[in-house]
Design goal:
By secondary structure, the chain is an alpha+beta fold. It contains five helices and four strands; from the N terminus they run H-H-H-E-H-E-H-E-E. The protein folds into two domains: 31 residues, no CATH class; 103 residues, 60s Ribosomal Protein L30, Chain: A, CATH 3.30.1330. Helix 5 links the parallel strand 2 and strand 3.
Length: 147
């Protein structure tokens, strides 16, 4: 038996490992597409410079995570922060760096809480974004959509 034929037989077998499982998973997500698309993004707002999650934010994340945990889809955490003001000798580049640092720390808090709420870490994608002119800063958006 040639190796190409052998590999095709293995892939067609019901217990064919990763490939068959991935196809079954994609089919399951396709069948539940309506439920997945009905999950709206979660938007959390913060005070300028605030990093910690409030009890209300934690409860909102927990409820959102319950809806998403049953699907094997990626979860995107977009964390935004505005540039700090009122600090002497702060260059624009240093202010942008500080904003990205704050956004990262906020996003990391949300990511850790999502993990505690039952979403596996390999499904979580954190994106820290500094000051934006066209976007409301000091917030986190948790979504199943890439954009």
């Amino acid at each position: 038996m040639t190796s190409a034929l052998w590999l095709s037989l293995i892939a067609a077998a019901p217990d064919a490992g990763g490939t068959a499982n991935a196809e079954a998973l994609n089919e399951k997500i396709f069948l539940q597409a309506r439920e997945v698309t009905e999950i709206s993004p979660l938007r959390l707002r913060f005070l300028k410079g605030e990093v910690q999650l409030t009890d209300n934010n934690r409860e909102m994340i927990r409820q959102w995570a319950e809806k998403v945990a049953k699907f094997n889809i990626p979860v995107y955490i977009h964390s935004y922060a505005s540039a700090p003001t009122g600090i002497r000798n702060l260059t624009p580049e240093a202010a942008r760096h500080e904003a990205v640092r704050i956004a990262f720390n906020r996003g990391l808090m949300a990511k850790n809480f999502l993990e505690q709420s039952g979403i596996r870490h390999n499904r979580l994608i954190l994106k820290s974004i500094g000051p934006q002119d066209n976007h409301e800063n000091d917030s986190i958006t948790i979504t199943s959509r890439r954009d």
